[in-house]
TrEMBL record:
SUPFAM superfamilies in the record: F-box domain, RNI-like
UniProt-recorded name of the protein: FBXL4 protein
SMART domains attached to this UniProt entry: FBOX, LRR_CC
Source organism (scientific name): Molothrus ater
Keyword list, A-Z: Leucine-rich repeat, Ubl conjugation pathway
Xref: InterPro entries: F-box-like_dom_sf, F-box_dom, FBXL15_LRR, Leu-rich_rpt_Cys-con_subtyp, LRR_dom_sf
Pfam families: DUF7885 (PF25372), F-box-like (PF12937)
All residue ranges annotated as the F-box domain in the record: 276-331
TM annotation in the entry: none
Lineage of producing organism: Eukaryota, Metazoa, Chordata, Craniata, Vertebrata
Domain of life: Eukaryota
Keyword match Ion transport: no
GO biological process, alphabetically ordered: SCF-dependent proteasomal ubiquitin-dependent protein catabolic process
């Protein structure tokens, strides 16, 4: 009779192996870096260090600025510093779209995906190209306002200026850390201790998390230090570490042991297992519940331990909600192909940031959706630059139950492709921020997708007549709860009137940087009177907002939680007091650059209304 191994012993061995692997470094480059630190030596100075600023901004997930301007845009990261070492709010810097946790506390907030690794906390990114590929020795980030958002720095093996793209694109993490709150908003040069890598790079990626910040972080420039030839370590550091040999041998033993166990499990039937306390005797649903707390890589590792756990780890019920965004650098056509059999019941899928630089092909994405799209309800594809018209057509054909579609910053999709979205009549959430959607396609979407509750059209610069769009929303989208019109350039009081009359369930409205809206037309008082359920209202950079508008909000929108009136010159402290007294749930009030609201007034309001975060920005 073949030997019997208790399942708990298997799990213990697997867990011990995982701990050992995590304790060790992942690559030989990491091991050399660690040995260099342990032996307190440096690379021999055989190369002259090259210092270079970013030549070009290649890609980014969001920015505060306009697509047709340089103010507050990611493009400001190219070249030499514009502001540093000065501190303050400057238009010449790079600023992401959000900060703090305010965007997670509004009606448009989306539920997070489960199984997101605790080590992945990135919210935004920017990719920078440099002139010369080098082996990095240092990365300096010049932060000029509210520093501390950068959580990860990566280097890419692909040269964006090469005529011959590599067969394989590698990303290596140079440095990563959990978000930290920095005391004070003053400028600083951030120079983390980076890891040595074994390939030259001229493509650097910064990932940020602004959730702990009190205001928008502002970046001025990035400096890459490096050498042309791979550093040669001294003989002292190249000596073999006996601890590493021991670890390698131990892992080989464990690997062999696990192979042997798998062979045993292949010939052992369930009835041969002991009768008490082992996994094969637990209810199937209980094991599924236990495994639901593992990340996707852990599931894949655990599936290699035995037949029973392989069956559980490959059960499609474990993949109802699947986020591949944390693993964006490793996801490709092969990954999707391997996941197909496990994702036949998938309902939520996050492929944001994945597939760029040829990692996912149109055919690979299409094959996956044809097998796994029938039950999809939510599809996140932010910054998916592989997407084209064929992909949108496949989405609309293969995902008949789709309710949420995020195409944020998918700026490579051609304008005519968006017509296909109108076929998905069940849509409740559509995010088209920074896309090339045109007016005709959008009118068709609004006409056929009458169930829409959340719509983002921020920075959609190809729409010619927002008044017509607003009129169609008022007529067709009666269930609309949140609407983002950030930086739409031509909406007027006429469009606002149509919108307010037809979409009276609106709880969130972003009209930031909409220069054609003027308080003198009564558009803001009309909003306040027609939309009593408003919880979030952004009127950012509209200098015409006045006391009358604030008093109407105080009288009619008592559920207001977030208000941004940055830049107005017409609002007095008295009207703000009325607003704060009336809106008991107010938690965010941005009065930056409001000329009548000085620091003394802000201190007084903070003292009287301590539950409200009142922001007053400055420039030195």
């Amino acid at each position: 009779m073949p030997p019997v191994f208790p399942m708990l012993t298997v799990l213990s061995m697997f867990y011990y192996m995982c701990l050992r692997r995590r304790a060790r470094t992942a690559t030989r480059g990491e091991m050399n870096s660690r040995r260099a630190i342990e032996s307190n030596t440096r690379a021999l100075p055989i190369n002259v260090e090259i210092v270079q600023y970013a030549k070009e901004v290649l890609d980014f997930s969001s920015h505060y600025g306009s697509e047709n301007s340089m103010s507050y845009t990611m493009w400001n990261l190219a070249g030499i510093p514009n502001v540093y070492p000065s501190s303050g709010d400057f238009t010449q810097t790079a600023v992401f779209r959000t900060y703090g946790t305010w965007w997670d506390r509004c009606p448009s907030a989306r539920l997070p995906f489960k199984r997101t690794p605790s080590t992945f906390c990135s919210q935004d990114y920017v990719e920078l190209a440099f002139e010369e590929p080098v082996y990095p020795t240092a990365v300096h980030i010049l932060e000029t306002y509210h520093p501390g958002a950068v959580v990860r720095i990566l280097a890419c093996s692909a040269n964006p200026y090469s005529q011959n793209p590599p067969a394989e694109v590698r990303w290596e993490v140079l440095w990563s850390e959990a978000p930290t709150k920095v005391n004070g908003p003053q400028a600083r040069q951030f120079t983390p201790c980076i890891k040595q890598i074994n390939f030259p790079t001229n493509l650097i990626r910064l990932e940020v998390n602004s959730s702990l910040l009190d205001y928008y972080t502002e970046l001025d420039a990035v400096v890459l230090h490096g050498v042309k030839e791979r550093p040669v370590l001294s003989l002292k550091t190249s000596m073999i570490d006996m601890n590493d040999i021991d670890e390698d041998e131990d892992e080989e033993k464990f690997a062999c042991g696990m192979d042997a166990l798998n062979k045993q499990f292949s010939i052992v039937t369930l009835r041969e297992w002991p009768t008490n306390g082992y996994f094969d005797k637990l209810p199937y649903e209980l094991i599924q519940l236990i495994l639901s707390h593992l990340t996707v890589p852990d599931l894949c590792r655990l599936a290699q331990t035995c037949k029973l756990l392989y069956q559980h780890c490959c059960d499609p019920l474990q993949y109802i909600h699947l986020s591949l965004q944390p693993y964006w650098a490793r996801i490709n056509d092969t990954s999707l192909e391997h996941l197909q059999s496990r994702c036949t019941l998938i309902q939520w899928l996050n492929l944001s940031w994945t597939g760029n630089r040829g990692a996912i092909s149109v055919s690979g994405f299409s094959r996956f959706l044809k097998v796994c799209g029938s039950e999809l309800v939510r599809l996140e594809l932010s910054c998916g630059h592989f997407l084209n018209e064929t992909c949108l057509e496949v989405i609309t054909e293969m995902c008949p139950n789709l309710q949420e579609l995020n195409l944020s910053s998918c700026d490579k999709i051609p304008p005519q492709a968006f017509n296909h979205i109108a076929k998905v009549g069940s849509l409740k959430r559509l995010i088209l921020y920074r896309t090339k959607v045109e007016q005709t396609a959008l009118l068709s979407i609004l006409n056929f997708c009458s169930e829409l509750q959340h719509l983002s059209l921020g920075s959609c610069v190809m729409i010619e007549d927002y008044d017509l769009i607003a009129s169609m929303m008022g007529a067709k989208c009666k269930k609309l709860r949140s609407l983002d019109l950030w930086r739409c350039k031509n909406i007027t009081e006429s469009g606002i009137a149509e919108l307010a009359s037809g979409c009276q369930l609106l709880e969130e409205l972003d009209l930031g940087w909409c220069p054609t809206l003027q308080s003198s037309t009564g558009c803001f008082t009309n909003l306040a009177r027609k939309l009593p359920n408003l919880q979030k209202l952004f009127l950012t950079a509209n200098r015409s907002v006045c006391d009358t508008d604030i008093e109407e909000l105080a009288a009619n929108c008592t559920h207001l939680r977030q208000l941004d009136i940055l830049g107005t010159r017409m609002v007095s402290p008295a009207s703000l007091r009325k607003l704060l007294e009336s809106c008991k749930d107010l938690s965010l009030l941005d009065v930056s650059f409001c000329s009548q609201i000085d620091n003394r007034v802000v201190l007084e309001l903070n003292a009287n209304f301590p539950n409200v975060f009142i922001k007053k920005s400055f420039t030195q």
